[in-house]
Amino acid sequence: MLFEAPCSFRSLIFAALGKAGIAWDVVYTTPSLSGLRAAVAAGLGITARSLASLGHDLGPAKRSLALPKLGDLEIGFYSTGRDLAAPGQVLRELVRQAID
């Protein structure tokens, strides 16, 4: 269960499962995080997301699934070169804190 393309997690998932020789199917795609969360919560499958994006009702998959590590995901901040407005600075700091 994945976000629709383009999504940075998609290539990590496909590569990690392929390298591990694990068969898989994409059974659900969505453009929204709420749709993805609802599908996982309903037990339709699993997904790869940051823990922060999944909320309090979802957590890591069971170790018994023996899923491979996905590797690193690059997160970038892009701007016009001007100083960020206060809301942008707050968002940047929240993201930095969440990934540290």
For the record, the CATH class is Alpha Beta
Rg estimate, integer Å: 16 Å
Per DSSP E runs of 2 or more residues, the count of β-strands stands at 2
H/E order of the elements? Answer: EHEHHH
CATH superfamily, by name, is Periplasmic binding protein-like II
**Annotated CATH architecture:** 3-Layer(aba) Sandwich
**Approximate helicity band:** 25-40%
Structural class: mainly alpha
Give an overview in words.
With 100 residues, the chain is mostly helical. It has one domain: Periplasmic binding protein-like II (D-Maltodextrin-Binding Protein, domain 2, 3-Layer(aba) Sandwich), CATH 3.40.190. Helices cover 39% and strands 4% of the residues. The protein contains four helices and two strands; from the N terminus they run E-H-E-H-H-H. It has a two-stranded parallel sheet. The longest helix has 14 residues. The model has no long low-confidence stretch (mean pLDDT 87).
Note the topology.
Layout lengths: L1 E2 L4 H12 L9 E2 L2 H9 L9 H4 L31 H14 L1
Parallel strand pairs: 1-2
Please supply descriptive tags for the structure shown above.
100 residues, 39% helix, two-stranded parallel ribbon, single chain, D-Maltodextrin-Binding Protein, domain 2, globular, mainly alpha
Short description:
This protein has 100 residues and is mainly α.
